[in-house]
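In this supplementary section we document a worked example of the pipeline. Step one takes a protein sequence of length 139 as its only input; no multiple sequence alignment statistics are reported here. Step two produces a three-dimensional model, which step three serialises into structure tokens for compact storage. The input and output of this example are shown verbatim.
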Amino acid sequence: MQFWDSSAVVARLVREPGAVALQSLPAPSPLVVWWGTRLECESALARVERTLSGSRAVVDTYRQQLATLANHWHEVQPSLAIRARAVELVRRWPLRAADALQLSAALEVAEPDPVRLHVVTLDVRLADAARGEQLSVGP
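The serialised model returned by step three reads:
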């Protein structure tokens, strides 16, 4: 099973340099993401449109692809347990709050056997923390 964080989803959509390995990965079934992934991806696409001179038509295409992908992925819903674990994770690892929530959601999916879940991320801090939590990580 694969858990994709927002950095991986966006990189695959916009075909970012350095994300070549993501392009060759088959679309996982089921694709598992954190509840906030759609918002994080939309935020990244808005930045592309504003700052990287992405044309509105191109970014709209990315948004359509994101919507199609979101219709088929499985979202880990927020819970008090995920938030509590995320608090522990920010104390243990140098993570931003959103990354801690993503990692906590991944750990929730991986229980009781973390080895069965592969985390797909391009975020170095998140990858390091996920490895530290005994998850398989990479593109």
